[in-house]
Known about the structure:
This protein is mostly helical. The chain contains eight helices and no strands. The protein has helices at about 5-10, 15-25, 30-35, 40-50, 55, 60-80, 85-105, 110-150. The longest helix is centred in the last third of the chain and has 41 residues, at about 110-150. The protein is globular and about 60 Å long. The N and C termini lie far apart (about 55 Å). The relative contact order is 0.16. The model has no long low-confidence stretch (mean pLDDT about 90).
Amino acid sequence: MLSTKLIQMIEEHANPIADRVIRQLRAEARLAYIAHLPDAELRKRCLEILNRLGHWLAASREEEVATHYERLGQTRCREKVPLHEVVHAFHVLKARMLDYVRDQGISQTVVDLYAEEELELQIGRFFDAVVYYVIRGYEKEWRVIGAASGAR
């Protein structure tokens, strides 16, 4: 896998990438709930992905991704985090991560460009799966909460 060195670079520079993500999350008016979370909480959430990106991108991790992010979706539902904010926060993380790689200016050869493209494809697929499983978990919990409310 040509993108391995780029994945390692992201993992090694997780904190500066998390800083970029937190700055954007704070600046976006449409993220009212998330913008009020403490920096430490936002950093923890970012680093959960950034520090273990290689682990999450491993092809055999689909079931682990499904389980982990469905639970996260259920948790965010119980916390009453608006679903659109959860999804948008993942989009921000993905974009800032890829921006960081591009900002490093390492794409000088055809092989470097291919590695960057490969990374972008892998990250895109990962975040598509994350969003799907988060929404699935959120909706499951929403139905449970709705059923419990209706039973009263």
